[in-house]
Amino acid sequence: MGMKVYGPAASTNVARVLVCLEEVDAEYELVHVDMPSGEHKNPEHLVRNPFGQVPAFQDGELILTESRAIAKYVLRKGGSQLLRECNLSESAVVNVWLEVEAAHFNSAMSPIIFQCFVVPMVMGGTPDMKIVEENLNKLKKALEVYEARLSKFKYLVGDFFSLADLSHFPTAYYLLGGPHASVIDAYPHVKAWIADIMARPSVKKVTELMKMPSV
Ligand code: GS8
Fold this sequence. Notes:
It is a single chain. The protein is of the alpha+beta class. Helix content is 56%, strand content 7%. A 4-stranded mixed β-sheet has the order 2-1-3-4, with helices on one face. Strand 1, helix 1 and strand 2 form a beta-alpha-beta unit. The longest helix has 34 residues. It is globular. The structure holds S-Hydroxy-Glutathione. The site of S-Hydroxy-Glutathione has 11 residues, from helix 1 and helix 3. Keywords: Transferase. GO terms for molecular function: glutathione binding; glutathione transferase activity.
């Protein structure tokens, strides 16, 4: 039995797992979870993810949740160098920037994506601009730090690509495709870095899946 990912590809946290599977050219099955009808709260899904969220991941007897933990498992299993585990300090810094992604970039982008995509397109509502503005300010503070870092190094950890960079792709994809894409114009190194990430074959493949509503 191969690896299975449960969730819609359009979910940022699901896309983070998919891109790692693509990086290591793994065989996997993407099992769609219909979130608008609440399938993620069904008892069968709660066995896989007790928080009633996506993604859930299964490899034989092993069931995992939390996209970044799943991403690491997939990369280790596939023998990828994106975690830099042959080098103690480099792998430590990969983990630092993976935490930064979750705590600063994703935590600002997540409510922006919810307001600008999910509210109008899935819920038929109007975005709460106060929430959007607050989180854009939070995002800009993070981007200042990123800009300084990326003026010194080509990528977040150093002059090599790592999971820390790759993990930003799903939320960066929505930033670029949303109404606030011009925010990154003030940060030229960040802009070039995001373009570099988006050009990766694994990322291109997963962005195609993200555009397909039933996947
Ligand atoms: C977050 C999962 C999550 O928020 C991870 O996997 O990294 N820290 C976890 N999933 C959202 C979908 S957004 O991509 C989700 O399932 N939301 C539905 C809900 O909370 O009911």
